[in-house]
Design brief:
signal, nine-stranded mixed β-sheet, Rossmann fold, alpha/beta, single chain, 206 residues, 32% helix, elongated
C-alpha cells in the first residue's frame, strides 16, 4: 500500500505526463507548409520517337525516402526543416518530374510510370544518393546538393543501353525555408535539363 504522502506526487506526475502526451499530439497534428518543384522549360521538341519509356521510382536511403526537406549540418547527420515538407516523398516527386519533363520533349512515343502494354521498350532506373541542403560548420555556406545515378535499360534483353551520374550543387542564401526551397527548385530544374537530352539520345529519340 502506498504512503499517503506519495499520492499527491504520483497524481502530479501522471498529470504532467498526460499534458506532455497531449502536447506531442498537438504538435504532430500541426499543418506543414507544402512545396513542390517545377519542371524545366522545354526549349523546342525533339524528333518524335517510337519507343515507350517507363520511368521507375528511384531507389533511395531511408533518410531520403520521406517528404521532409533534408538539411545536413555534417556529413553523417541528417535533419529536416521544421514546418515544411515536399508534396510527395522525394523519390516519387523526382519520378514525377522526370515523367512530365521527358514526355514534353516528344523524344518517346509514350512516357509513364508503368507500361501501356505488358512491357515497355525502355526502362529508366535510378538511385538517388543526395537530395539535401548542406551547411557543414558554423557560418559555413549553404549549398543544395543533388546526385542521381541513372541507367537506361532495354526491356527485351535487359541490357544497359546507357548510364550516367547527374550531380548539381546550387548555393542558397541561408538555411531558411524561404531560401532553400527556391534553391532546390533551381537545382532540380538544372539536373532534369541535363537528363533530357541524354535520355533522348540514349533511347534513339533524338
Amino acid at each position: 500500500m502506498l504512503p499517503r504522502s506519495f499520492l499527491p506526487a504520483l497524481l502530479l506526475a501522471l498529470g504532467t505526463s498526460g499534458c506532455a502526451a497531449i502536447s506531442a499530439l498537438d504538435s504532430a497534428s500541426e499543418p506543414l507548409d507544402i512545396y513542390e518543384l517545377q519542371t524545366p522549360v522545354i526549349e523546342g521538341a525533339a524528333r518524335r520517337g517510337w519507343a515507350e519509356l517507363v520511368v521507375e521510382e528511384p531507389i533511395a536511403s531511408g533518410a531520403l525516402s520521406t517528404d521532409r526537406i533534408m538539411i545536413r549540418p555534417g556529413p553523417l547527420q541528417a535533419q529536416y526543416l521544421p514546418g515544411a515538407r515536399w508534396s510527395d516523398e522525394t523519390p516519387a516527386m523526382l519520378q514525377t518530374l522526370l515523367v512530365r519533363s521527358i514526355s514534353e520533349t516528344g523524344a518517346f512515343a509514350s512516357v509513364g510510370r508503368a507500361p501501356l502494354g505488358g512491357q515497355g521498350d525502355y526502362a529508366l532506373l535510378g538511385e538517388l544518393t543526395d537530395f539535401q541542403a548542406e551547411s557543414y560548420g558554423t557560418d559555413a555556406p549553404v549549398t543544395v546538393h543533388l546526385r542521381l545515378m541513372l541507367r537506361l535499360v532495354r526491356e527485351r534483353d535487359s541490357s544497359v543501353v546507357a548510364s550516367r551520374t547527374f550531380e548539381v550543387r546550387q548555393p542558397a542564401a541561408d538555411d531558411e525555408t524561404a531560401s532553400l526551397v527556391p534553391a532546390f527548385d533551381l537545382a532540380a530544374r538544372k539536373m532534369v535539363s541535363e537528363i533530357l537530352p541524354w535520355a533522348a539520345r540514349a533511347g534513339g529519340g533524338a
